[in-house]
Specification:
alpha+beta, carbohydrate binding, hydrolase, Glyco_hydro_31_C, disordered N terminus, nine-stranded antiparallel sheet, single chain, ten-stranded antiparallel sheet, Immunoglobulin-like, Glyco_hydro_b, binds 2-acetamido-2-deoxy-beta-D-glucopyranose
Length: about 900
């Protein structure tokens, strides 16, 4: 019984020897911090009283009162006690199809904060019923589908196994602690009722209220997720159990960490407390719905991986996702927190941003530059300097005298404009937004109840209280065309600085004892704040869309920097203020994938790096990688040199044009991947292990990725590279995406390929069909009527399948069934097109667009001659004599069926006969 510190070194009084280990581990764990970020501005675990108290702290004194265990429907409840601490709380274990929810809370009179708005409203419909397998005086054994859960009473512990194999245990290391709310007393330990960081006093009126626990994954060497950190995808250990030394734990606290260091467990702009564990044959997940500051330690032993979580306040509301495949984990998470909102088609094109495009002439010039250099793009962005003194919703009249005309001109080329709107409101009584918000008491208050006054871009600012639904509704109204002067339906929005960033606050954010709606302290919802602001903004665009277009409206596009679980239902995020160096290019991949598997696939990194100046090589390579980012935007800092795609010399311009054009070629495939993200929560850019969980060697890979199921990209991430080591998992076959040639790696899947500045090593996965659009256009709007190409890559049986999702690309009409989702399959030389089984056929959305080209790779031999007949009518569509003519962009070893002119939304089959 009693407390025992297993990580004494983290408590700040470590011996010389542990300090030595600490330094050693710091370097061995590769968490060197670069000098650009001001590390000392941000807290470490030892600077946060609750982390100091609970991380790594054991307490064997928690137990279940056996007499209190009760069943009711899907729930099992019990009293969880700790005599020494006087804790008496309720444990609830709820069963759902595919996941389990553990809740620990005090009685309602204590009013602990419960995160609102994140869970899906229909969660209740997924409830399942436990079946009781055994109950003794010591434990209870329950069953749910394939899973068994054992609740051990004393010491308190929960074990979960799937098909008889243990996959997770909760409190196996007795690191569960629940600080129940209490009265202040003489002699209470330091840090309970007040603490100070860098001169900022946190008054902590509710005293200690932190919660911690451990979660262990047996036989598991890789855990992922918990974004946002600039680290490897497979999380490095932060604690070494053998010698008790530690590095910093992963921190989840939304902060404006500019020039963040790659390879650091620092908390960045967004937080999703969702962890994945992957071992051979089983993927599981754990999601803690808690928006307070959080730290997570990861430790690895020969027996598996152990994690130790602590949050400053709130309740324990922990979802354990039972997988057992990666796709199932994604689907379960989407059932809990929602799937990705379907983006507008244009949002998947290329975005050109800069802090700042100076004035209207500058915008027009950049817009014209894309046409002059024949580079497609869809959106031009305006940063803070477009406003009148950083008063959002206003325009600097001398720089942007006629913003409506400007947007209309950009729109006449099929393009959009994005403006920035941040949550800090200039405290200027003459500014209408400030005036209304102040009069209505819509601002966050300081601990004394006055409107909080913090410093941000406009100077002295107040921050909207987005927890209050009335404030969100009022905010949404500000986007009406009649309110937002100078806006048009072609204007979309960007929310920055919404962690929130406060230049004068502790750790460049807001005081934790600030007050929100109904006297909730900021500490409880810090990580949710930015997501609520994002949500209010997106609601504004939805309402504007309804006013302009009627009930099918216009899907919103709002990019956010801060995020939380559930942000996927609102819009995309980007990975914040990165730097123009190779390390940041490299780390963008694990960052994007980590956010993607945490249910938020629509994200990307600033191309070129926000700070600094990329040279032509880095800028070229970055664009070549970003072709495949789910969100593709070039951006640069105010002090950075201009970097429009044509400013790096002729060769670089050609290569960047190729990279951006390749993006547009892939858009039908990418849009289809987003349809899957919208229906089942699948990520778009995927780790190799997501597609090949049965290949153990993929589990640690994060310098290659899959774009959907069909394309593997092994991008060049090193300066001056002359070759690239490529890993092609599984049996294949794989084909070079450039030549269509089969690629033969060694038995382990490895091969080394030579590279030039033109190379983007990427591979077609046999068995898949990708829909493409190959005609070069200036924007997605200009390609709207273009025909499609099917790229068919055969597997070893000569088969392949793939799909294409189509709708109007902009409205919500698809939610009324106005879409088509085509399934293409190729077998025994027959290619057919039908509506996805289960959907109404014919589809309710149809077009007269056609397939203009079918490219088949993997026939294994050049075709001497071939013929294509329509099945049913017998009509001969085409005959050809080999060898196949080579064309630019067509793999050399492919058979190309030209102009079959088959309707993309019509049902048909064609039979191909080939003479070798
Ligand atoms: C690590 O901590 C454990 C538990 O406190 C202790 O038994 C062990 O001796 C420690 N190991 C070292 C190397 O200090
Ligand atoms: C798909 O996105 C739309 C918004 O575009 C949303 O309303 C819908 O709920 C999403 N689908 C799912 C299954 O979450």
């Amino acid at each position: 019984m009693g407390e025992e510190m297993i990580n004494p070194s983290r408590k700040g009084n470590h011996s010389f020897l542990t300090s030595f280990f600490l330094i050693f581990l710091f370097s061995s764990l590769q968490f060197q911090l670069s000098t650009s970020v001001k590390v000392e501005d941000f807290k470490k675990c030892t600077d946060a009283a609750f982390c100091n108290r609970l991380l790594g702290t054991r307490d064997e004194g928690y137990y279940i009162d056996p007499a209190s265990v009760q069943f009711s429907g899907p729930s099992v409840t019990a009293r969880l006690l700790n005599k020494a601490k006087g804790t008496d709380v309720t444990l609830t274990m709820k069963a759902y199809k595919g996941f389990v929810r553990l809740l620990v809370n005090e009685d309602a009179s204590k009013k602990r904060f419960e995160v609102p708005g994140v869970l899906m409203h229909d969660l209740g419909s997924r409830e399942a019923i436990w079946s009781k397998k055994a109950q003794t005086a010591q434990s209870l054994l329950l069953q749910l589908e394939d899973a068994e859960m054992q609740l051990q009473y004393s010491p308190f512990q929960i074990g979960i196994s799937i098909k008889g194999k243990p996959v997770m245990s909760f409190n196996g290391r007795q690191m569960f602690n629940f600080e129940h709310l209490r009265q202040k007393q003489e002699g209470d330990p330091e840090g309970w009722w007040e603490e100070t960081f860098k001169g900022h006093v946190d008054s902590k009126p509710r005293g200690p209220e932190a919660i911690s626990f451990d979660l262990e994954f047996p036989d598991t060497q890789h855990v992922y997720g918990l974004p946002e950190h600039a680290t490897s995808l497979s999380l490095n250990p932060t604690v070494d159990l053998a010698d008790n030394a530690t590095s910093e734990p992963y921190r989840l606290y939304n902060l404006d960490v500019f020039e963040y260091a790659p390879e650091s467990p620092f908390g960045l702009y967004g937080s999703i407390p969702f962890l994945w564990a992957q071992k051979l044959g089983v993927a599981v997940g754990a999601f803690w719905l808690n928006a307070a500051e959080m730290y997570v330690d990861v430790g690895k032993t020969e027996e598996g991986t152990f994690t130790n979580w602590v949050a400053e306040s709130g309740i324990l509301d922990l979802f354990l996702l039972l997988g057992p495949t990666p796709a199932k984990v994604s689907e379960q998470y989407a059932q809990i927190t929602g799937a990705t909102a379907l983006p507008q088609y244009f949002a998947l094109g290329y975005h050109q941003c800069r802090w700042n495009y100076r004035d209207e002439a500058d915008v027009r010039q950049v817009d014209a530059g894309f046409d002059a250099y024949d580079i497609p793009y869809d959106v031009i962005w305006l940063d803070i300097e477009h406003t009148d003194g950083k008063r959002y919703f206003t325009w600097d009249k001398s720089l942007f005298p006629d913003p409506v005309k400007l947007q209309e001109d950009v729109a006449s080329h099929g393009r959009k404009v994005v403006t920035i709107i941040d949550p800090h409101i200039k405290r200027d009584p003459g500014y209408y937004i400030y005036q209304e918000a102040e009069q209505n008491h819509y601002f966050v208050r300081d601990k004394d109840g006055k409107d909080f006054d913090g410093w941000c871009w406009p100077g002295s600012s107040s921050y909207l209280d987005m927890l209050n639904p009335e404030v969100r509704a009022w905010w949404a109204q500000q986007f009406a065309l009649s309110k937002y002067k100078g806006s048009t339906p072609n204007l979309y929005v960007w929310n920055d600085m919404n962690e929130p960033s406060v230049f004068t606050g502790p750790e460049i954010t807001m005081q934790k004892d600030n007050l929100h709606w109904r006297e909730v302290e900021h500490r409880n919802l810090h990580n949710l704040y930015g997501a609520l602001f994002h949500q209010g903004t997106a609601e504004g665009l939805i309402e504007r869309g309804k006013a302009v277009y009627g009930s099918d409206a216009d899907r919103p596009f709002v990019l956010s920097r801060a995020f939380f679980a559930g942000t996927q239902r609102v819009g995309p995020i980007w990975t914040g203020d990165n730097c123009a160096d190779w390390k940041h290019l490299r780390v963008s991949l694990p960052m994007i994938m980590s956010v993607g598997i945490a249910g938020l696939p629509f994200n990307g990194a600033d191309v070129g790096g926000f700070f600094g100046n990329p040279d032509a090589e880095l800028q070229t390579r970055w664009n070549q990688v970003a072709t495949f980012y789910p969100f593709f935007r070039g951006h640069a800092h105010l002090d950075a040199k201009r970097r429009e795609p044509w400013l790096f010399g002729e060769d670089a311009t050609r290569r960047i044009r190729d990279a951006i054009r390749a993006r547009y070629v892939l858009l039908p495939y990418i849009y289809t991947l987003f349809r899957h993200a919208n229906t089942t929560g699948l990520p778009v850019m995927r780790p190799l292990w997501y597609e090949f969980p049965e290949v153990e060697a993929t589990h640690g890979v994060d310098d290659e990725f899959m774009l959907g199921p069909a394309l593997l990209v092994s991008p060049v991430l090193e300066e001056g590279a002359e070759s690239r080591a490529v890993f092609l998992p599984g049996k294949g076959p794989w084909y070079s995406a450039r030549t269509g040639e089969p690629v033969k790696p060694d038995a382990g899947g490895a091969l080394t390929v030579p590279v030039t500045m033109d190379s983007v090593p990427s591979y077609l996965r046999g068995g898949h069909i990708m829909p493409l659009r190959e005609r070069a256009r200036r924007s997605t709007a200009a390609a709207r009527k273009d025909p499609y190409t099917l790229l068919v890559a055969l597997d070893s049986e000569g088969q392949a399948s793939g799909d294409l999702y189509l709708d109007d690309g902009s409205s919500f009409a698809y939610k009324r069934g106005l879409f088509a989702h085509r399934l293409f399959s190729f077998k025994d030389g027959m290619l057919s097109n039908q509506e996805l089984p289960g959907n109404p056929s014919p589809p309710r959305y149809s077009t007269d667009l056609v397939i203009e080209r079918i490219i088949i790779v993997g026939l294994g031999h050049p075709a001497k001659s071939f013929s294509v007949k329509e099945v049913g009518t017998g009509k001969v569509l085409q005959t050809g004599a080999g060898p196949v003519v080579q064309e630019a962009g067509v793999p050399e070893l492919a058979l190309v069926i030209r102009k079959p002119e088959l309707p993309v939304t019509g049902d048909w089959s064609i039979q191909l006969s080939v003479t070798a």
